[in-house]
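[agent] plan:
  1. take the single chain provided in the ticket
  2. run structure prediction with default settings
  3. attach structure tokens to the ticket
  4. add a short note for the reviewer (M.T.)
[agent] executing step 1
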Amino acid sequence: MATKTRIVGIAMDFSPTSKLALRWAVDNLISRGDQIIIINVEPPHADHTRKELFVENALVPLEELREINFTKQYGIARDPEVIDILDSASKTKGAKAVAKVYWGDPREKLCSAVEDLHLDSLVVGSRGLGAIKRVLLGSVSNHVVRNASCPVTVVKGK
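[agent] step 2 finished; step 3 output follows
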């Protein structure tokens, strides 16, 4: 009996906690043949000349994320550590890694991504804001846990 390929989204802002979430997902959640979608949400005011290409559900293959010109065009960080983690998941688990870029409020866009990308699971990092900062700034992870239509795993920073 064949197992269903799962689609696992990883919220990625290239912070230490989002990289920790990616590592956790690869070590504990990703199985052979799963698809990893790195979800990057850029600020709504960020204006990139090719932004309209991402309006549809265009997924960026891992190979393109490696290219410096691609990442410069879209304002996405080219992070060797993230690429290494994805390469490792691809080689050791046969996982397919792609990325999707959104522009807007991360809370809303991550919840939309669950629907748009048909995610089976979403993994987010938590910066561990104190109660006062969480009230003032709002917690992305809390919002996503309450509103996403798939299971959400929150990986706490160290």
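[agent] step 4 note for reviewer: The chain has one domain: 7-45+53-156.
[agent] ticket updated
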